[in-house]
Design brief:
The protein is built from 6 helices and 6 strands; from the N terminus they run E-H-E-H-E-H-E-H-E-H-E-H. The protein has about 180 residues and is α/β, with parallel strands linked by helices. The chain has a single domain, classed as Glycerol-3-phosphate (1)-acyltransferase. Strand 2, helix 2 and strand 3 form a beta-alpha-beta unit.
Length: about 180
Protein backbone atom coordinates (compact mmCIF):
# COMPACT_ATOMS: atom_id res chain seq x y z
CA UNK A 1 0.00 0.00 0.00
CA UNK A 2 1.07 3.64 -0.32
CA UNK A 3 3.33 5.10 2.35
CA UNK A 4 1.93 7.70 4.74
CA UNK A 5 3.99 10.69 3.58
CA UNK A 6 3.89 12.54 0.25
CA UNK A 7 6.03 10.76 -2.32
CA UNK A 8 6.86 10.21 -5.96
CA UNK A 9 5.25 6.96 -7.14
CA UNK A 10 6.79 5.42 -10.26
CA UNK A 11 4.90 2.73 -12.16
CA UNK A 12 5.35 0.70 -15.31
CA UNK A 13 2.88 1.64 -18.05
CA UNK A 14 0.76 -1.00 -19.78
CA UNK A 15 -2.47 0.75 -20.77
CA UNK A 16 -4.35 4.02 -20.58
CA UNK A 17 -6.38 2.27 -17.85
CA UNK A 18 -3.34 2.21 -15.53
CA UNK A 19 -4.03 5.51 -13.76
CA UNK A 20 -7.71 4.61 -13.38
CA UNK A 21 -6.77 1.38 -11.62
CA UNK A 22 -3.94 2.88 -9.60
CA UNK A 23 -5.73 5.99 -8.41
CA UNK A 24 -8.38 3.82 -6.78
CA UNK A 25 -5.68 3.00 -4.20
CA UNK A 26 -3.46 6.07 -4.39
CA UNK A 27 -4.51 9.70 -4.23
CA UNK A 28 -2.04 11.39 -6.57
CA UNK A 29 -1.57 13.93 -9.30
CA UNK A 30 -0.45 12.19 -12.48
CA UNK A 31 2.24 13.45 -14.84
CA UNK A 32 1.18 12.69 -18.41
CA UNK A 33 2.57 13.35 -21.86
CA UNK A 34 0.95 16.30 -23.61
CA UNK A 35 -0.26 14.03 -26.44
CA UNK A 36 -2.91 12.64 -24.09
CA UNK A 37 -4.72 15.98 -24.45
CA UNK A 38 -5.70 14.70 -27.93
CA UNK A 39 -7.28 11.44 -26.70
CA UNK A 40 -11.07 11.65 -26.74
CA UNK A 41 -12.79 11.09 -23.39
CA UNK A 42 -9.51 10.39 -21.54
CA UNK A 43 -8.44 14.03 -22.00
CA UNK A 44 -11.51 15.38 -20.20
CA UNK A 45 -11.07 13.00 -17.26
CA UNK A 46 -7.40 13.92 -17.06
CA UNK A 47 -8.20 17.64 -16.96
CA UNK A 48 -10.75 17.14 -14.18
CA UNK A 49 -8.23 15.28 -12.02
CA UNK A 50 -5.48 17.88 -12.28
CA UNK A 51 -3.04 16.03 -14.52
CA UNK A 52 0.33 17.75 -14.90
CA UNK A 53 1.11 17.88 -18.62
CA UNK A 54 4.61 17.55 -20.04
CA UNK A 55 5.71 18.12 -23.60
CA UNK A 56 8.49 15.57 -23.74
CA UNK A 57 10.12 17.25 -26.76
CA UNK A 58 10.44 20.62 -25.00
CA UNK A 59 13.21 21.05 -22.41
CA UNK A 60 11.42 24.01 -20.78
CA UNK A 61 8.27 21.92 -20.35
CA UNK A 62 10.27 19.06 -18.81
CA UNK A 63 11.97 21.49 -16.41
CA UNK A 64 8.65 23.09 -15.46
CA UNK A 65 7.10 19.68 -14.88
CA UNK A 66 9.92 18.62 -12.56
CA UNK A 67 9.54 21.90 -10.64
CA UNK A 68 5.77 21.37 -10.39
CA UNK A 69 6.40 17.80 -9.18
CA UNK A 70 8.63 19.04 -6.35
CA UNK A 71 6.24 21.84 -5.41
CA UNK A 72 3.25 19.47 -5.37
CA UNK A 73 5.00 16.93 -3.14
CA UNK A 74 6.28 19.67 -0.82
CA UNK A 75 2.67 20.90 -0.58
CA UNK A 76 1.71 17.47 0.79
CA UNK A 77 0.44 15.61 -2.27
CA UNK A 78 1.61 12.49 -4.10
CA UNK A 79 2.80 12.44 -7.70
CA UNK A 80 2.41 9.44 -10.02
CA UNK A 81 4.68 9.16 -13.04
CA UNK A 82 5.26 6.52 -15.70
CA UNK A 83 9.02 6.75 -16.29
CA UNK A 84 8.85 4.67 -19.47
CA UNK A 85 7.22 7.71 -21.08
CA UNK A 86 4.76 5.58 -23.03
CA UNK A 87 2.89 2.29 -22.80
CA UNK A 88 4.82 -0.93 -23.27
CA UNK A 89 3.60 -4.33 -24.33
CA UNK A 90 6.86 -6.28 -23.96
CA UNK A 91 7.30 -8.81 -21.17
CA UNK A 92 9.22 -6.24 -19.11
CA UNK A 93 9.43 -2.46 -18.99
CA UNK A 94 10.91 -0.11 -21.53
CA UNK A 95 13.95 1.87 -20.33
CA UNK A 96 13.06 4.47 -17.71
CA UNK A 97 13.68 8.17 -18.21
CA UNK A 98 15.85 9.52 -15.43
CA UNK A 99 14.74 13.13 -14.88
CA UNK A 100 12.18 12.59 -12.13
CA UNK A 101 14.56 10.29 -10.22
CA UNK A 102 17.31 12.92 -10.32
CA UNK A 103 14.88 15.60 -9.14
CA UNK A 104 13.64 13.35 -6.32
CA UNK A 105 17.21 12.73 -5.13
CA UNK A 106 18.09 16.45 -5.27
CA UNK A 107 15.06 17.31 -3.15
CA UNK A 108 15.07 14.30 -0.76
CA UNK A 109 11.70 13.15 -2.07
CA UNK A 110 10.66 9.59 -1.16
CA UNK A 111 10.30 7.32 -4.21
CA UNK A 112 7.99 4.29 -4.20
CA UNK A 113 7.90 1.81 -7.10
CA UNK A 114 4.59 0.35 -8.25
CA UNK A 115 4.05 -2.58 -10.60
CA UNK A 116 0.89 -3.19 -12.62
CA UNK A 117 0.09 -6.14 -14.87
CA UNK A 118 -3.03 -7.18 -16.74
CA UNK A 119 -3.97 -10.85 -17.05
CA UNK A 120 -4.68 -10.63 -20.78
CA UNK A 121 -2.09 -9.32 -23.18
CA UNK A 122 -5.05 -7.94 -25.12
CA UNK A 123 -5.57 -5.42 -22.30
CA UNK A 124 -2.17 -3.91 -22.99
CA UNK A 125 -2.26 -1.16 -25.58
CA UNK A 126 -1.87 -3.45 -28.58
CA UNK A 127 -4.14 -1.80 -31.15
CA UNK A 128 -2.81 0.92 -33.43
CA UNK A 129 -5.66 3.37 -32.93
CA UNK A 130 -6.96 4.86 -29.69
CA UNK A 131 -10.73 4.37 -30.07
CA UNK A 132 -10.72 0.63 -30.93
CA UNK A 133 -8.46 -0.01 -27.90
CA UNK A 134 -10.62 2.19 -25.69
CA UNK A 135 -13.85 0.46 -26.70
CA UNK A 136 -12.30 -2.99 -26.31
CA UNK A 137 -10.89 -2.25 -22.90
CA UNK A 138 -13.89 -0.47 -21.40
CA UNK A 139 -16.66 -2.59 -22.92
CA UNK A 140 -15.75 -5.76 -21.02
CA UNK A 141 -17.51 -6.91 -17.87
CA UNK A 142 -14.25 -7.56 -16.09
CA UNK A 143 -10.56 -6.90 -16.43
CA UNK A 144 -8.13 -8.83 -14.24
CA UNK A 145 -5.19 -6.79 -13.07
CA UNK A 146 -2.53 -7.10 -10.39
CA UNK A 147 -1.11 -4.10 -8.59
CA UNK A 148 1.77 -4.06 -6.14
CA UNK A 149 3.29 -1.19 -4.16
CA UNK A 150 6.97 -1.58 -3.41
CA UNK A 151 9.02 -0.33 -0.49
CA UNK A 152 10.23 3.23 -0.20
CA UNK A 153 13.55 3.22 -2.07
CA UNK A 154 16.79 3.84 -0.24
CA UNK A 155 19.01 5.25 -3.00
CA UNK A 156 20.54 8.67 -2.45
CA UNK A 157 21.30 9.57 -6.06
CA UNK A 158 19.00 9.78 -9.06
CA UNK A 159 20.88 6.91 -10.67
CA UNK A 160 20.46 4.69 -7.60
CA UNK A 161 16.74 5.48 -7.33
CA UNK A 162 16.31 4.83 -11.06
CA UNK A 163 18.10 1.47 -10.87
CA UNK A 164 16.29 0.33 -7.71
CA UNK A 165 12.86 1.20 -9.16
CA UNK A 166 13.63 -0.42 -12.51
CA UNK A 167 14.85 -3.64 -10.91
CA UNK A 168 12.02 -3.88 -8.37
CA UNK A 169 9.27 -3.25 -10.94
CA UNK A 170 10.66 -5.76 -13.46
CA UNK A 171 11.09 -8.41 -10.76
CA UNK A 172 7.54 -7.81 -9.53
CA UNK A 173 6.15 -8.01 -13.08
CA UNK A 174 7.90 -11.37 -13.55
CA UNK A 175 6.33 -12.66 -10.33
CA UNK A 176 2.88 -11.44 -11.40
CA UNK A 177 3.16 -13.06 -14.83
CA UNK A 178 3.95 -16.49 -13.37
CA UNK A 179 0.30 -16.87 -12.38
CA UNK A 180 -0.98 -16.07 -15.84
CA UNK A 181 -0.31 -18.60 -18.61
CA UNK A 182 -0.62 -16.01 -21.38
CA UNK A 183 2.73 -14.54 -20.27
CA UNK A 184 4.54 -17.83 -19.75
Amino acid sequence: MPINIPALYVCNHRSFADPIVLCKYLKAFVIAKAEVMNYPIINKGAELTGVIWVDRQDQDSRNQTRSKMVETIQDGYNILVYPEGTVGKAKHTLPFRKGTFKEAALNNIPVVPVAIEFQSKRDLWVLEKFLPQYFYQFSKWQTNVKLSFGPQLTGTTGEELHDEAYQWINQEISTMQKDWSEFA
